[in-house]
TrEMBL record:
Protein keywords: Methyltransferase, Transferase
GO aspect biological process, one term: methylation
InterPro entries assigned: Alpha/beta_knot_MTases, Ribosomal_eL30-like_sf, rRNA_Methyltransferase, SpoU_MeTrfase, tRNA_m1G_MTases_N
GO MF annotation: an example: RNA methyltransferase activity
Organism placement in taxonomy: Bacteria, Bacillati, Bacillota, Bacilli, Bacillales
Protein name as catalogued: RNA methyltransferase
Tagged with keyword Transferase: yes
UniProt xrefs under SUPFAM superfamilies: alpha/beta knot, L30e-like
Organism: Paenibacillus anaericanus
Length: 291
């Protein structure tokens, strides 16, 4: 650790930094968010770690406050990142190693936590481009699976994720962690009922594909032209029956072993990358010729 650089940072911002004890309301609030028991602001989130904070810096997400532990600042990168947030965040707090350890779920924490508000997107906010790809999560219950899917959607280049029939909070700490920052960059829109979502998709001329382990059509045999919507269902109950009452197509991922299906997060990764690669210049004729 560059002790000199850290001391210079603390001296430079001493007018702004406040010290918090373990019973301070900010510390209590962070613990409530991390235990998923805070109901006042559903989109308030806690993030920890260098990767997630670098992602945050790429966005316009509002950060309410940050807290850090100087004794845990092991790298120049961490010190520089804290300083960047000091310049853009009004409230900065220092806590002891013991207090920080109570807030962190890491064996080797890097001493920096931020609390912010996730952006709210509405269906009217989605500028649907030609040949768009949207992933719909129907009734998914596991926040870890949702976070993993967001990460895959970010990597594949999906335009937006729709959460239909929501069962998990988007600010759930497990979702935030599993998304590896994707929850900050992928637009997420909510529909309470499948019927509303289906109507919206039809109005925007989406071809709807359902990921169904019992389908007969192999996902690799499709063209995926035009606006494409991929629907993935609940881990326990699958896709809501209402989707099957409309003109849709079903897709399956072949299983060669004894298992009859994949985890929904794994299935989403395979299908979203397949669809997006076929649509992008990275795929094109060259990709088609490899099939």
């Amino acid at each position: 650790m560059n002790t000199l650089k850290l001391n210079q940072l603390l001296e430079k911002y001493q007018w702004k930094i406040k010290r918090l004890g373990p019973q301070n309301e900010k510390v209590v609030e962070i613990r409530s968010i991390l235990h998923n028991t805070l109901n006042s602001v559903e989109r308030r989130f806690v993030t920890e770690g260098m990767w997630a904070h670098h992602k945050l810096r790429m966005t316009d997400i509002h950060i309410e406050y940050c807290l850090f532990c100087p004794e845990m600042m092991y790298s120049n990168e961490a010190i520089e990142l804290v300083e960047a947030f000091m310049n853009s965040t009004d409230d900065i707090y220092v806590v002891s190693p013991k207090t920080f350890q109570r807030l962190s779920d890491r064996d080797d924490p890097d001493g920096f936590i931020s609390v912010g508000i996730l952006p709210v997107y509405h269906k009217e906010d989605l500028g649907i481009r030609d040949d768009a790809v949207i992933v719909i999560l129907d009734g998914l219950e596991s926040p870890g699976n949702i976070g993993t899917i967001l990460r895959s959607c970010d990597g594949a280049g999906v335009d937006a994720v729709i959460i239909c029939n929501p069962k998990a909070r988007v600010n759930n700490p497990k979702l935030i962690k599993a998304s590896m920052g994707a929850v900050f960059t992928v637009p997420i829109v909510y529909f309470e009922h499948p019927s509303e979502c289906i109507t919206w998709l039809k109005n925007h001329r989406f071809h709807i594909y359902l990921a169904d382990s019992e389908a007969r059509s192999f996902y690799g045999n499709r063209v995926y032209g035009g606006n494409t919507a991929l629907v993935l269902g609940s881990e326990r109950y699958g896709i809501s029956q209402e989707w099957y009452n409309h003109p849709v197509q079903t897709l399956t991922i072949p299983m060669s072993g004894s298992c009859d299906s994949l985890n929904v997060g794994v299935a989403a990764s395979i299908l979203t990358y397949e669809i997006c690669l076929r649509k992008k210049a990275l795929g094109g004729d060259e990709y088609e010729n490899k099939l």
